[in-house]
Specification:
Elements lengths: L4 H7 L5 H13 L6 H11 L3 H9 L7 H14 L4
């Protein structure tokens, strides 16, 4: 099920500015060109609670799900400022 972009942008608003920047950066820069599978994984990621997202992005916790780890890496890369 495809969600409207405005709804995805709203879901990217989190409890910390760091998460906001990461998630919105990916949505703005990479989401449209991502595979359907990665887009669906991103929507699933947005359904997670902030502490779980913080552990994935900033903590030492890595998920056993390789697809999720790959998505986290893509999100971080998309949010990085252009050099």
């Amino acid at each position: 099920m495809t969600r409207p972009r405005s709804h995805l942008a709203w879901l990217c608003r989190r409890g910390t500015r760091e998460l906001d920047l990461l998630l919105r950066g990916y949505l703005d820069r990479a989401y449209d060109n991502a595979t359907r599978t990665e887009q669906e994984a991103f929507v699933s990621l947005l359904e997670k609670q902030d502490p779980e997202l913080q552990a994935l992005f900033f903590g030492s916790v890595r998920n056993a799900n390789c697809q999720l780890e790959s998505l986290v890496d893509h999100i971080v890369a998309a949010a990085a400022p252009d050099a």
